[in-house]
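Weekly structure sync, notes
Attendees: PL, DS, HV (note-taker this week)

Item 1: Tripartite tricarboxylate transporter substrate binding protein
DS walked through the input record. Source organism listed as Saccharopolyspora hirsuta. Sequence as pasted into the shared doc:
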Amino acid sequence: MTVRTALTRGCAAVVGIALIGAGVGEACEAARPSAGVRDKLRIIAPAAPGGGWDTTARELQNAAEANGLTGTSEVLNIEGAGGTIGLARLVNQPGDTNTLMLTGTTMLGAVEINGSPAEVGDTTPIAKITEDFDAIVVPADSPLRTTDDLVRAWRSAPGALAVGGGSIGSLDHLLAGSLAGEAGVGPAGLNYIAHSGGGEMVASLLGGHLDVGFANTNEISDQVETGELRALAVASPERSEDLPDTPTLRERGIDIAMSNWRGLVAAPGLDPERKREMQEYVAHLVSTPQWRDALANNNWLNAFQTGTEFEQFLRTDTENIRRITTRLGLS
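Item 1 (cont.): predicted structure, written out as tokens:
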């Protein structure tokens, strides 16, 4: 007889007894089979309330509740260290069938930069759900009119260009480092100034404090349309709907395409059936009208991917970001 079977039978035997010791009660609870996310859904947003991960988690929660896809649900904010504190929490809950955690580009960078003992690869990959892409922008009166101009300026005076974007290790920073590397500029030649978000970076750019900016296309498309900023290129595989007249880096002869993606992972140690159930659950969740509205309202691109396709993507992106952070001297 297995330990779990013995515990289950023991629990049945004590039904009706008013006083049960705390240890026995906890053991009984652990022994009961869980109905998983359809019974209780917990989504870890590994950041403070109000940011991108938190917004995504609450949109998922709304879609689940509106469609009766779970009995109860909660969003659990575990902030700190680029998401790696939340990651460590999930990794230390093997077999948890009620919890999904948001992850993505930022967390992969944070794992490398912070030397996190827990890695995204330690979790159970479930699905990629959204992505967006960066643009490279300059003030309208900048002498830099193309990416060729930018590369030449970097090569002629490494470190002279003030380059801005999001936090250290963000997609903006990783993309800037990759592009500088393509230009033959080492980490010392990348004068990168981190900002709290795209709005702050745009203000610095328009205020003359930066020469070049890296930001999500939907953060700078209005300024490009009004002529305040000029977009040199986008880092997407194809042209962006936000900036349809702006070429991709690949069109400019630079083989770089990087996305700020978000996805869902589960605890390690799930058996194949539970993993499949979670994948199917998320597939159902992102097919709901509420989630489609969330994509439109937040200017997110649908990037649903699951199974072996997502697992391969995650391995490739992890290796790519590890290579970039190492080249930048961040890990």
